[in-house]
Write a structure and sequence with these properties.
Strand content of chain A: under 5%
Structural class of chain A: mainly alpha
CATH topology of chain B: Cytochrome C Oxidase, Chain A
CATH superfamily of chain B: Cytochrome c oxidase-like, subunit I domain
Number of domains of chain A: 1
Oligomer: heterodimer
Strand content of chain B: under 5%
CATH architecture of chain A: Up-down Bundle
CATH topology of chain A: Four Helix Bundle (Hemerythrin (Met), subunit A)
Order of helices and strands of chain A: HHHHH
CATH superfamily of chain A: nmb1532 protein domain like
CATH class of chain B: Mainly Alpha
Number of strands of chain A: 0
Helix content of chain B: over 70%
Shape of chain A: elongated
Radius of gyration of chain B: 22 Å
Number of domains of chain B: 1
Number of helices of chain A: 5
Largest sheet of chain A: none
Structural class of chain B: mainly alpha
Chain lengths: 150, 441
């Protein structure tokens, strides 16, 4: 189990996904489509696994501890749904080797994820750690386990 | 805990109104310089004072306030209450006040200045108090919120100095005019505009350029900003000129540090593309380094033209160019996001970089940079002023037209999207929760 709590782990994961998105765009602009497709596959896997760790482990734990089921986690779930739609658009553009499409959808996904991450990192994660209290370390282990599940 | 988001943000058209008015204000300042090019001969020329206030109050201020309406909910989790009458009061008062103040400087009319002062102090007090209420309602402030609090205090200080200056001009108050003008300008451009840009960039640059965060010492350095301004203005008012000069030099070092750190991060961007956004931010970073050099020179040199050049680069470069670059991200993204949320039919939408065509962005940003460099040259070679000002006005006209076209396209497409049948039900945010309300207009 990592010594830091899940906020550090998930924030590092945010940054890693940003780099994968940059890598996808760089390869698409350079017309290196095999590398672009590999970057997209990693991006899609990591973003969806990150969302799953939050939606299946962290959000329910926060909702149970805080009693807030229709508050911040509902907003975060809605934004995850929007990001999933953009991943679908990116998949189609990468498959079609459409550089312009990759550039446009990648930029939209980047901005969408950044404003989403800001809210999670500045507001939700600190609140979730506070709500978890002494169980924060155990919750961290569960989040890491779900995020890294094959 | 408070969690608001873009769903809780005001409708984008509200921010768009601020942004269009601000761009118009910048354009008007450029046209005024072209009309009266002798303005750059001395910063005391009535046309110089008119152009500066048109640009700062009718240009930068509305764009900053419009952007904060969207930024505060996302970055700080704090909503700014946005009633239409309140926004009309703020924006209307600001634009009318800036115009009247410019007219007052040009005509020497005390009545116009008094009316402008009343309008500006009212609208800025409302805007500043609303911002302060949101920021101080939180029991604990994170680094960004603390920086925004300091910027809001700097806005208050700028207004205080401005009110004193109006007292001198209208009622003949016996106060040290030159010192008050110098520190009114520094509180405004360094404390309010610079503080806001410096703190927002600390968040925005690493995120949107996918680069490493600013070092911890930058946040510490940013914390010294109001203290440097306080020390400098108090020293100047008390007759300790050398202490005030040291404070000015440290402010210059701070902006140069910001430019250097920003250039480093933008250059090392892992975003995967070197487009207008990349080059625009790199330009802003390099202009900030140059601004630090000019600030130091202006503080030490006896030639007043350095001071004029410093003020010009601070307003049009650090302030104007940063907002210009950010408008090309904020406006297309807000348009795209609200189209996407209304797009239940999953119809094909224009790509983000097609909403304001990239060619227009590149051309306008290049013209803007060239115009600023020419205007700097015009401080020392007055024959350059008119062509430089015309180029500057032309660049802002292109910005205005491209933003207005994008916003018009937004309204038309949004109306069309609302008529289309849903392709498939969108994923509910939460099984037992109503969908978050989306502010679309």
């Amino acid at each position: 189990m990592p010594s830091a709590l899940f906020d550090h782990y998930l924030m590092a994961d945010h940054r890693a996904c940003d780099h994968l998105l940059g890598s996808l765009r760089r390869h698409a602009v350079g017309k290196d489509w095999p590398a672009a497709q590999a970057a997209f596959a990693s991006l899609q896997h990591d973003v969806l696994a990150h969302f799953a760790a939050e939606e299946e482990v962290m959000f329910p734990a926060f909702e149970a501890a805080s009693g807030m089921t229709c508050g911040p986690t509902a907003v975060m779930r809605m934004e995850h749904a929007e990001a999933r739609e953009l991943l679908d658009d990116l998949a189609a553009a990468t498959q079609a080797q459409d550089t312009d499409g990759v550039r446009g959808h990648a930029e939209a996904l980047l901005i969408l994820l950044q404003q989403h991450n800001m809210k999670e990192e500045n507001i939700l994660y600190p609140a979730a750690i506070s709500a978890a209290g002494p169980t924060a370390a155990e919750l961290t282990a569960q989040i890491v386990l779900r995020r890294e599940a094959k | 805990m408070q969690m608001v988001s873009t769903e809780a943000s005001p409708a984008p058209t509200l921010s768009f109104a601020y942004m269009l008015c601000g761009t118009l204000g910048m354009l008007a300042a450029g046209l005024l310089l072209a009309w009266q090019p002798e303005a750059l001969l001395t910063r005391w020329h009535p046309a110089a004072l008119a152009a500066v206030h048109l640009f700062a109050l009718g240009g930068l201020m509305p764009v900053m306030l419009g952007a904060l309406l969207q930024f505060m909910p996302v970055a700080c989790g704090l909503a700014l209450p946005g009633k239409v009458w309140l926004e009309s009061l703020i924006l209307g008062g600001l634009m009318a006040g800036a115009g009247l103040l410019a007219a007052g400087f040009l005509s020497g009319s005390a009545g116009a200045m008094a009316a402008a002062g009343a309008l500006l102090l009212t609208s800025l007090s409302v805007a500043g108090l609303r911002l302060a209420r949101a920021l101080w309602r939180q029991p604990r402030a994170n680094a960004l919120q603390a920086a925004l609090r300091r910027s809001t205090l700097a806005l208050g200080m700028t207004m205080g100095f401005g009110a004193a200056l109006l007292g001198i001009l209208i009622a003949g108050w016996n106060l040290p005019l030159v010192i008050l003008v110098d520190w009114h300008a520094l509180w405004g451009i360094a404390g309010w505009v610079g503080g806001l840009i410096g703190s927002v960039a600390t968040v925005v640059v690493p995120m949107f350029h996918v680069s490493k965060p600013y070092p911890g010492h930058w946040n510490l350095a940013l914390r010294t900003l109001p203290w440097l301004l306080l020390t400098g203005s108090a020293a100047a008012l008390s007759g300790f000129g050398s202490t005030a000069t040291v404070a000015s030099l440290m402010l210059a070092a701070l902006v140069a540090l910001f430019g250097g750190l920003t250039a480093q991060r933008v250059w090392a961007s892992q975003r995967g593309e070197r487009d207008a956004f990349f080059w625009g931010w790199l330009g802003v970073a390099l202009l900030s380094v140059a601004l630090g050099g000019l600030g130091a020179t202006a503080a030490l040199a006896s030639d007043p033209r350095w001071g004029t050049a410093f003020g010009l680069l601070a307003l049009a470069g650090l302030g104007g160019s940063t907002l210009n670059v950010m408008l090309y991200r904020i406006v297309p993204f807000l348009i795209w996001l609200h189209w996407q949320r209304a797009n239940k039919a999953r119809a094909r939408l224009p790509l983000l970089h097609q909403i304001v065509p990239e060619r227009w962005q590149r051309t306008q940003l290049a013209a803007d940079l060239l115009a600023i460099l020419l205007l700097l040259g015009a401080c020392f070679a007055p024959a350059l002023t008119r062509p430089a000002a015309l180029l500057f006005a032309a660049s802002k006209l292109v910005l205005l037209v491209s933003l207005a076209r994008a916003m018009q396209g937004y309204r038309e497409k949004l109306a069309h999207l609302k008529t289309l049948p849903a392709a498939s039900p969108r994923a509910a945010p939460e099984p037992d929760c109503p969908a978050p309300k989306v502010a679309i207009a």
